[in-house]
Amino acid sequence: MCGIVGVLGTHEAAPLLVEALGRLEYRGYDSAGIATLDEGRLGRRRAVGKLVNLSDKLVHEPLRGHSGIGHTRWATHGAPTEANAHPHAGARVAVVHNGIIENYRELREELSARGIGTSTDTDTETVALLCQLYLDQQMPPREAAAATIAKLEGAYALCFLFEDEPDLLIAARKGSPLAIGHGEGEMFVGSDAIALGNLTDRITYLDEGDRAEVTRAGVVIFDAQGREVTRPEKRIAQAAAQVDKAGHKHFMAKEIAEQPRVLAAALGHYLTPEGRIALPEPCIDFTAIDRLTLVACGTAFYACNVAKYWFEQVARLPVEIDVASEFRYREPPMPARSAALFVSQSGETADTLAALRYAKGQGAQILSVVNVTESSIARDSDIALPILAGAEIGVASTKAFTCQLLVLGALALEAARQRGTIDEATLAAHLQGLRALPGLIDQGLSIEAECQRVSRGLAEARDILFLGRGRMYPLALEGALKLKEISYIHAEAYASGELKHGPIALVDEHVPVIVMAPHDELFDKTVSNMQEVMARGGKVLLITDTKGARIAGDGTWEVITLPEIDPLWAPILYAVPAQLLAYHTAVAKGTDVDQPRNLAKSVTVE
Ligand code: HGA
Predict the structure, then answer these.
(1) Which of 87, 198, 313, 572 would you label with 30, given CA atoms 20 to 30 Å apart?
(2) Span 232-244, mean pLDDT?
(3) CA terminus-to-terminus distance, the chain
(4) Are 71 and 35 in contact (CB under 8 A)?
């Protein structure tokens, strides 16, 4: 989603702002802009589309000055035009904003009653105009910003820059993350630590409701009640990490290839060298709960769908599951003996965070599975389990998905152990299966050339169906989502058994049907459904293992063969062809793989 950056530097700010915005490109955006103070005067440059358009503009119309703010916008209110791009400004203040100001209509009316008109379609402009109104009423900048923030409803991360105030930025957060960066005689603001990676690794995260007055001498923070507070300064290793593609054409390709390594790192964290499960202490007591609620959005939701099978089949623990945007408003009762688990790569997903807060309000024990351990979701949880995937830059999640599955799998085994629903030998075998995963995924990656070849055919299709049964049904859902996200081909997933209840009407020779079926206990059932497709002229791509290929390969359009694996963990391995097919289809179609249209990486608005 939107990226925010602020600089109080000792050199020209514009190049630093543009570079930092470049580090935020991965979040997805449709326009960009910066404002600086040149000898105390506010100047703004904004451009629609990629950051390069803004850079080009700056070549012809440079902005000078050592203080500035910048923004990459993912439009929520108003089309992605130059007028709607941030920073928004009044005569003496400029503002960048991430989030949604929900009472912007009322604010507009208030401004209009005073003869102040708006000139954009955004909610954000009202923030700049309101602050300007307070400045016009002779409030000093710090007070004008505080008074403005007090009037806002909704979610925001904000950064204000004032004319004639080259040593001041005001930053505030409610519902959207914001970080302060500490330099040597310089200070920074960023919507995440990655934005500031080239500027500093010393970061202070603002808490919910905080307002920060930033000067080159440091930062003074006030909490939601206006009390001065101290927030810890941390060294963030990840921020310094080079955000580069390591020789790959796209971040997505790099992140797919990284999976054996990051899964091995996660295994090292969650299993002892002797192969026992090692969860952080104190861990959840699975014998004290009768139900587990799993909540997430998008790909993380499909990881939860897989985990439901694991918790129910292996640990005999009833699981309720929902997408966060529905869960948060559904007012579900949460029985006393229950826990709720939230999965989010960024740990900032707005709907998931709101769902977590609802469950917490109901008294449930809160667990989370996140990649960013400093995130709001991690901090609001009783137990936060890191997936240790490293920075994921591609908008389409890949390594975070498989790492989420690995952590959820280890947790399900732990639940089974505690609840006595698994015997020693079976537990040891499944643990062995988990340990084998990095090697198997490494082998699995060798199907890339085949996936690339098959994808040339898929790229011609207008619609594609994915089928899976049991634990593979969520993988079919994930495969369809991945393909839609980056290739823009319409794809749907169905539980194989559901096909004949409607969607089979779609099947003809133009609709490829991708069947995900390892040779497991449900293989024969899935193969029957596959035969039903082929009997109607359907063109089947079967993804299976050697045994499955031998039995059911005849008559299919294509077969992709993966190594054999403990069927329990097959969803983790079968994520690889789902990712590779989506990736190569998108490449064949020439779409923007890492920053697909309309999508954002960390969805911080609801
Ligand atoms: N509502 C603002 C900012 C949008 C946003 O935060 N996206 O992530 C706008 O539409 O400009």
Answers:
(1) 198
(2) 71
(3) 11
(4) no
pLDDT tens readout for residues 112-166: 999 999 999 999 999 999 999 999 999 999 999 999 999 999 999 999 999 999 9
The residue whose two tokens read 């192969």 is 275
Quote the pTM value.
0.85
Handedness of CA 93, 96, 101, 104 (dihedral sign): positive
Q: Which two tokens stand for residue 217?
A: 């001498």
**pLDDT 10s digits, 63-93:** 999 999 999 999 999 999 999 999 999 999 9
Alpha-helical regions (H) of 436-468: 437-444, 448-458
Question: 424, 539 in Cβ contact below 8 A?
Answer: no
Q: Is the dihedral of CA 537, 538, 542, 547 positive or negative?
A: negative
Ligand 1 and 100: CB distance under 6 A: yes
Q: How many CB atoms lie within 10 A of CB 288?
A: 12
Position 269 scores a pLDDT of 94
Catalytic-residue membership of 283? no
1 lines ligand 1 (CB under 6 A): yes
Place of tokens 């947790």: 411
Work out the average pLDDT over 592-600: 86
586: three-class secondary structure by DSSP:
helix
Q: How far apart are CA 491 and CA 544, in angstroms?
A: 20
Average pLDDT, the chain: 94
Nearest to 396 by CA among 540, 575, 231, 593: 593
- For residue 407, give both structure tokens: 């952590």
Say yes or no: CB of residue 198 within 6 Å of ligand 1.
no
Residue 2 Cα to ligand 1 midpoint, Å, equals 6
575 Cα–ligand 1 center, Å:
32
451 is catalytic: no
